[in-house]
Write a structure and sequence with these properties.
By secondary structure, this protein is an alpha/beta fold. Helix content is 32%, strand content 12%. It contains 10 helices and 10 strands. Helix 8 links the parallel strand 4 and strand 5. The longest helix is centred in the C-terminal third of the chain and has 29 residues. Bound molecules: 2-acetamido-2-deoxy-beta-D-glucopyranose (NAG) (4 copies). The site of one 2-acetamido-2-deoxy-beta-D-glucopyranose has 3 residues, from helix 8. This is Carbohydrate esterase family 16 protein.
């Protein structure tokens, strides 16, 4: 039995039967996070002189994202007949204590959502973006930490003096407070993926990338030690997140009446990594990456050096991002998490 399940039993509450119903029709999928979920918001900034989209503007789903193709939110939304409202921005961290970073969840994404909720179209006097958002037909997801834990952040000790991993984790819960205050009642928190397997962070001896634009002097470091450090960070953060949800939800009663699921995307990616040919087309490749690109901001593989093997045979599109094939698995397991049927889900 998982330690969490045991903990929940002591609380007198079996997680999967605890709160809310997981199966009502979902019309809106509202997404917060970083490049693992971004479907066009960073592109809006880049193509509009770094200005954010105005409140009330719908950003259509991009067909080419940092995965090199589609990303999980629109695949999942199509599967359940929902519309995505995507606030995720490539490069985002949870809160803004790293210098020169892109918009963060706490300082940009949540305020942008609140502004969209408050928006009234001057012509109609009504909210023309959110026309059908209720507590039962809308799910909110947060998947954040890849950039917080990575290069130029905690991994390379680039945080401001005195900032800790706990400061990162303590930024996660208030995000749900804000959503709750607008009537949100269905939450899904994604765990960190095994970043130590991502070519960017894997050691050279485990087939990791060498110097790349995202980490131009990686090889000047002992990559074994950094891979190990990443393993430490990911494991610790995921454990604290998994313990944190029942603590905030069941003990501190932080979000009364809300249902809260954890999507253990860590174990899904880990399973793909350890049995690639069960998931990927031949020749299945879980250690290398498909596209070697000249800069880290661009989407798609134009100007990149690409493998002659199909993208669908790779776990990794580039050294940090999972391929569209993997996003399909993420999307289908996410849908299973919504109906509380995924083995990668923990339900409260
Ligand atoms: C994405 O692709 C679909 C067809 O698969 C197309 O209808 C749609 O217009 C495309 N969206 C964008 C933003 O290019
Ligand atoms: C709003 O969502 C409900 C189900 O959650 C659906 O029955 C209804 O048709 C939707 N209304 C509109 C205007 O989309
Ligand atoms: C790199 O770090 C590992 C783990 O600490 C150590 O075993 C190894 O000797 C180091 N390699 C070099 C070249 O210093
Ligand atoms: C995986 O892909 C990389 C990059 O194309 C390649 O160098 C490596 O040999 C491949 N590994 C396997 C096991 O096919």
């Amino acid at each position: 039995m998982r330690p969490l399940a045991l903990f929940a039993l002591f609380m007198g509450c079996v997680p999967s039967r605890c709160c809310g119903s997981g199966t009502s029709k979902i019309d809106n999928l509202i997404v917060f996070g970083d490049s693992y979920s971004d479907e066009g918001r960073l592109e809006y900034f880049l193509s509009h002189n770094n200005t954010p989209p105005p409140p009330g503007l719908y950003i259509p789903e991009a067909n080419v994202t940092k995965s090199g193709g589609k990303s999980w939110p629109q695949i999942a939304a199509k599967a359940i007949g929902a519309t995505t409202f995507n606030y995720a921005v490539t490069g985002a961290v949870c809160t803004d204590f790293f210098p020169d970073v892109l918009p963060s969840v706490q300082e940009y994404e949540v305020p942008a959502f609140l502004a969209d909720v408050a928006y009234k179209n001057p012509a109609t006097g009504t909210n023309t973006l959110y026309t059908n958002r209720t507590s039962s037909n809308t799910v909110y997801t947060l998947w954040i930490g890849t950039n917080d834990l990575g290069v130029n952040a905690f991994l390379t000790d680039s945080q401001p003096a005195g900032k800790t991993l706990d400061d990162f984790i303590q930024c996660v819960w208030p995000t749900f407070d804000y959503i709750y205050s607008t009537g949100g009642r269905k939450f899904v928190l994604f765990t960190e993926i095994p970043l130590n397997y991502a070519p960017l962070y894997a050691s050279l001896e485990h087939g990791g990338a060498g110097d790349v634009p995202r980490w131009p002097d990686k090889e000047a470091h002992n990559t074994t030690e950094y891979e190990q450090k990443m393993l430490e960070y990911v494991t610790l953060v995921n454990t604290v997140l998994e313990y944190g949800v029942p603590l905030q939800q069941s003990v501190k009663k932080r979000w009364p009446g809300a249902s809260f699921s954890i999507f253990n995307v860590h174990d899904l990616i880990s399973d793909i990594y350890h049995a690639p040919s069960d998931y990927l087309d031949a020749p299945a490749n879980a250690t290398g990456f498909y596209a070697e690109c000249p800069n880290s901001i661009q989407v798609g593989s134009a100007n990149c050096e690409v493998s002659p093997n199909p993208l669908s045979s790779f776990l990794w599109f580039d050294e940090l991002h999972m391929s569209p094939k993997v996003h399909e698995y993420i999307a289908s397991e996410f849908v299973n998490v919504l109906s509380q049927k995924s083995k990668y889900g923990i339900y409260y």
